[in-house]
Amino acid sequence: MDSLDLAMTHLRAMADGDVEAARACLHPDHLNHMAVDEPPAAAQHGVPGFMATSAWLRSAFSDLSFDLIEGSSDEHATFAHVWMRGRQTGPFVVFPPGGAPVSFPATGREFAVRQAHVFRLRDGLHAEHSAVRDDLGMMTQLGHLPPSPASIARMARWNISGGARKSVASVVASAEGAATAATAL
Question: Which InterPro entries does the entry mention (predicted)?
Fold first, then answer.
C-alpha cells in the first residue's frame, strides 16, 4: 500500500470505526495532535486513541466520509486534502482545552467541509497526525453558527432539559469504551 492509500485507509477507518484497518495504518505510538479538543480517551496513543476519536465522530455524524481532493507524500509524511461529509444525527460534543465540554444537539443537517491532514510516517505507518479543519464552516452548515434566535432557543432547551449533560456523559463513555475495546483485541 503506498502512502496516499495508507492515508485514505486511515480516514476510512475513522469514518467506519474499523479497528483492523486502523491497526494496518497506525504505529503503536501514534499521536493525534488534534485530540486536544476531543474526549479524554482520544488522547491515548495508538489504536485506542484513534478508536476513541472515531467513536466520538460517529456518535454525532452518520454517513461520515472523507473524499480525496488531492494528496502528496514523500518518505517522511503524507498530505491529504479531503472533503469531510456527514449528517449530524446525534449530539456533537466539543471539549475545549481547559474548559467545560459543550454539546450541540442534532440538527439533521448535512455538511461538507475541506480538511488538510498531515500524517508523519515511521516504519511505514502513521506515527503522528495533525490537521487543518474548517470547524467554523461545519458548525455554520449544521445551523449552530452564527447564533440566531432559533439556535439560541435550541441550545437553551437542550441545556435545560438535561440533554447536554447526558450527551457529554454518553460521548465520554462511548469513547472510553471504544478505546478499551481496542486495547483488549
Answer: Cyclase_SnoaL-like (IPR009959), NTF2-like_dom_sf (IPR032710)
Domain that holds residue 126: 3-184
Its pTM stands at 0.97
DSSP state of 160: H
Phi-psi category of residue 157: left, alpha or beta, with phi > 0 → left and psi -120 to 50 → alpha: alpha
Residue 130 contacts residue 118 (beta carbons within 8 Å): yes
Residue given cell 491497526 in the structure block? 23
pLDDT digits (tens, 9 = 90+) for 19-50: 999 999 999 999 999 999 999 999 999 999 99
Neighbours of 36 (CB within 10 A): 12
Q: Which grid cell sits at 48?
A: 485506542
Backbone torsions φ then ψ of 35, nearest 5 degrees: -70, -5
